[in-house]
Amino acid sequence: MKVKQHLAGIWNQQYRSPGGMVGWFAGERMVCQHRPETVWTLNLLEIQPTDTVLEVGCGAGQGIKLAAEKANGGRVIGIDLSELMVRVATRRNAQAVKAGRVALAQGNMTALPFEDQHFDKIMTIHTFYFWSEPSQVLSELYRVLKPGGRVVITLSTGKINARGEVEVWPPLQSALQGQVMPGMQREGFQVARLERGPNSRQYTSVAVIGEK
Ligand SMILES: C[S@@+](CC[C@H](N)C(=O)[O-])C[C@H]1O[C@@H](n2cnc3c(N)ncnc32)[C@H](O)[C@@H]1O
Questions:
Q1: Dist. CA 58–CA 78, nearest whole Å
Q2: 3-state DSSP helix/strand/coil percent for the chain, to nearest 5?
Q3: How many helices, marked H, and strands, marked E, lie in the chain?
Q4: pTM (2 decimals)?
Q5: What is the DSSP letter of 151?
Q6: Residue 29, Cβ neighbours under 10 Å: how many?
Q7: For ligand 1, is residue 202 a contact (CB within 6 Å)?
Q8: In a 3-state reduction of DSSP, which class is residue 80?
Q9: 179, exposed or middle or buried, with CB in 10 Å at 0-12, 13-18, 19+?
């Protein structure tokens, strides 16, 4: 059991901030594991061909690649705290980067390195667990979103047990209801709603959708 807990600790740390060989492997693992909710998130965003799109915490760059296929006359930008993930995502999107349609950079979601009202669409997938300052992140997302723009924050708030029942994680559920939804309204989002998504492996998906 101790070994299992130790390994789980290593994965958690790598999912928060991938680095080194294990981090590279964690990034590729997430590309496979997170595909259903990534595709779902992109559908919720309704990306148009000329949109300027941001992914915050882009990891190994799968979401960026799928977004760039939709915004084929626009521009897609990804930021991640991990320098390794920026390199991996850049490699995964090499052609589009070369063509100037995609750009990846190291950055922190608490201080987004972009001017106000720059993006039509913003997504962030499985980063909510690492938001140390939720109100600051929401404020930054709102600031860089254009009026009429949309943000989708996708996460998992529960696990499906062996009997097929959903076991909700109360701290995450209450953070969404008690902090994120009221926080979005405080920031000035016109629409702020929750939507249930596909199950991904043994986890549920939920998205917070905000419109400015
Ligand atoms: C669980 S991974 C999810 C990656 C990707 N979105 C996916 O679904 O595969 C979380 C990612 O968020 C990044 N991250 C964590 N804290 C961050 C922060 N403060 N600013 C930007 N990125 C951050 C990590 O480096 C990591 O790549």
A1: 6
A2: 45, 25, 30
A3: 9, 9
A4: 0.94
A5: E
A6: 15
A7: no
A8: strand
A9: middle
